[in-house]
Amino acid sequence: MNVRRRDRAYEVSQLARDAKDFVESIHSKREEVSLHVANRLMGALSAFRTRATESTAESRKISNCVKLLEGAAIRLKVDGIPAGGPSLESLLSTCHDIHQTACEIAGLLERRSED
């Protein structure tokens, strides 16, 4: 069981890195990359939630992260990456929230794998 938890922690750590890539792609105005990473993250988080979580708190965190990603992906598809101003600030804030949540989940699983 401990090995399984470690594997999950590694998977979520990879997701946290992908979430960081998502933030960076928005900063660098790479819309196509942003959409690709957002869709990849949504799929991976959804799969992770259904097969790997043992805690409803983790499941809620993952669900929230997926909702944030869905909203960001829709905004990107409809409006693209904003040139600046409040729209860009809002999108970047959402991206940072996604990254933070992915890191928190990875940390929880890593701590649990060491118990």
Describe the structure.
- This protein is mainly α and 115 residues long.
- The chain has one domain (2-113): Nucleotidyltransferases  domain 2 (Four Helix Bundle (Hemerythrin (Met), subunit A)), CATH 1.20.120.
- The protein is 88% helix and 0% strand.
- It has 4 helices and no strands.
Produce the secondary structure layout:
Elements lengths: L1 H26 L3 H22 L3 H24 L5 H29 L2
Helix pairs in contact: 1-2, 1-4, 2-3, 3-4
Shape: elongated
CATH topology: Four Helix Bundle (Hemerythrin (Met), subunit A)
Multimeric status of the protein: single chain
Which CATH top level class fits? Mainly Alpha
CA-atom Rg in angstroms:
14 Å
- What is the H/E string? HHHH
Rounded average pLDDT = 84
> How many alpha or pi helices?
4
Distance between the termini: 11 Å
Structural class: mainly alpha
In CATH terms, what is the architecture? Up-down Bundle
Strand content: under 5%
Tell me roughly what share of residues is in helical segments: over 70%
Q: What's the total number of strands?
A: 0
Can you tell me the residue ranges where pLDDT is under 50 for at least 5 consecutive residues? none
Corresponding CATH superfamily: Nucleotidyltransferases  domain 2
